[in-house]
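ok so heres the complex, four chains, lmk if somethin looks off
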Amino acid sequence: MRVVTGHLSHTLRADAQDNRERILDAARALFAAEGLRVPMREVARRAGVGPATLYRRFPTKQELVTEAFRDQLRACRTIVDEGLAHPDPWAGFCLVVEKTCELHARHLGFTEAFMAAYPDAMDFAAARAYSLKAVGELARRAKGADGLRPDFVLDDLILMIMANRGIHALSTAARVAASRRFAALVIQAFRASPEHAPLPPVPRLASL
Amino acid sequence: MRVVTGHLSHTLRADAQDNRERILDAARALFAAEGLRVPMREVARRAGVGPATLYRRFPTKQELVTEAFRDQLRACRTIVDEGLAHPDPWAGFCLVVEKTCELHARHLGFTEAFMAAYPDAMDFAAARAYSLKAVGELARRAKGADGLRPDFVLDDLILMIMANRGIHALSTAARVAASRRFAALVIQAFRASPEHAPLPPVPRLASL
DNA sequence: ACGCTAACGGACGCCCCCGTCCGCTTCGCC
DNA sequence: GGCGAAGCGGACGGGGGCGTCCGTTAGCGT
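and the predicted structre for the whole thing:
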């Protein structure tokens, strides 16, 4: 009887460990290219293992997703940290917008996981809260002439990520390119300008 | 009096005609709120008819969708016509952006049908081509100082519609509100400005 | 009022995905 | 090299959507 220690740090047999890696590689590739709705069996097929093996390592899809996108979750924090560290807050803000759009464009499934797909995935919720808090601080600093428009609110960033998700191009390359242009347009929209009309109110999108 | 809608050659019996209407009502409501992936049976259930009746009237989902969104398809043309008719081309362009965003936000499934869901739905393809052509003309006129930025291309509009689709709020009301703010931001992004950096190239999105 | 037939919907078979069980294989420790 | 257990995957039952068939109902014309 093996006691699972919460973080399942017990050593796997060599072949099992190898299969685990290949499952994760397959999941990363498929989730990135086609989103989260790929069947579990297709992940297994691509990894060259049976369905049972997949379910043994990752009993629920949420666990597989969480593990597959661990790097992206870390990247998410890194992006906002770099934005905050930038000497020019507005430039830092722009960087956050660009990098975030690219990250989400490259990994289609990550957006779904990050936003709302698994409400009780604490890893994602925590990263989201951290990022939002950091961007909130960055936005506070970036507001002003030649910077972020004063009526920007955090929900606008949520809005942008949701909108960016809508870009379902056929290939990943096209999606990333489109997303890059989208980010540039978004930055233009967020830039303070003397001539902008008051924005319509935004509904509550994120509970934070 | 029994009026046969459109080009259906044979007159339907009164109860059949009634069922047809209720099927379309159900389809409109469900497609608008939840998109096109609602099962055919759920449409039938909501309409209070059996599956067979639904399939008898609309043998394929595409036919049901096309008929359900006939009004929106017409609205699509109306919107660009009104935009073209506006004395100020830039104001007309802004109107097109706002109205289009709202239309797509109100009818979630319409976007899918309009964009790419049914490649061989000639009605949608024709409306899309017409709209794009008209907007192209409108954009040509709207470019210039205090108007549309010169590096705007038609694919940017496609990009906007795709992005707008990404806004999946819980309720239709919230979605429409969010979409309204989104449209305002988009207009800001499209407005000519002395300080905008060159945009990254956009990949081919629409074959037109 | 009556009968013809359009119209209805329950039920069927098909396929795909899900999550699990179990008999066989193979790792790895002694 | 041998043995125990970790690990494997094929196979199974369940559920749901799909499109169709057919026995029954009820509109409507006479």
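quick notes: Residues 1-8 of chain A have pLDDT under 50 and may be disordered. thats all i got rn
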